[in-house]
Automatic annotation (TrEMBL):
Its main location: mitochondrion. Belongs to the complex IV NDUFA4 subunit family. It is found in: Mitochondrion inner membrane. It comes from Synaphobranchus kaupii. Keywords: Electron transport, Membrane, Mitochondrion, Mitochondrion inner membrane, Respiratory chain, Transmembrane, Transmembrane helix, Transport. PANTHER family: CYTOCHROME C OXIDASE SUBUNIT NDUFA4, NADH-UBIQUINONE OXIDOREDUCTASE MLRQ SUBUNIT. It is a single-pass membrane protein. The keyword Glycosyltransferase does not apply. This is Cytochrome c oxidase subunit NDUFA4. The chain crosses the membrane at residues 15-38.
Amino acid sequence: MLSTVSKQLRNHPALIPLFIFIGGGATMSMMYLARLALRNPDVSWDRKNNPEPWNKLGPNDQYKFYAVNTNYDKLEKNRPDY
């Protein structure tokens, strides 16, 4: 299959950007899904030792991918301890 793709790319060089952008988009989407699975406090992989990981987050922990106007260094805790 790889030889067929390389032959097509040699015959039709206009397809090269298509492969680059589709490959880059697939790579970025997989990286984002991996980040959500590993870094999101709503996901609990170890239920025995850490059943509720969202309770261990401090007010200064940034878990969002992109925060527009929020400075996490100056936030204070406004919730009770359980």
